[in-house]
Amino acid sequence: MDTPSTDSIVSLVLLGIAGWPIRSTPQTLAQKSLETNSYELEDITKLLPSDYVRVQTALELYDLGVDHASISLLAQMARQWYVCRCWDFDQVRETLEPILERYHRGDIEKYLQTPDDASDALFLSV
Fold it and tell me: Of the candidates 46, 97, 91, which has an alpha carbon nearest to the alpha carbon of residue 74?
């Protein structure tokens, strides 16, 4: 679940257009397809254990005064949820909201003045 879902979808579509036999689908794409299907059937809105670890790391960084790196880590997670798990903006924001409540508004605004990625403003609302 660490690669953009669109990469796998495009690859599978191109193989299909080319007439590639289903039984000859590359193992990595077949595995990704199965993982995506079972994950979506289970519940794509769930946070994974790795998400909780990253949130905890971000909060610990914030407590240590490493504000920019802490907020950057949360923004990186948000981008991954959007790109790799196909969450919409509202879902990402709703998930981040209770976490961002622990941050000072001024720290988030300061980060957004020089974000690590220009798209971070889409996910980090103040």
Answer: 97
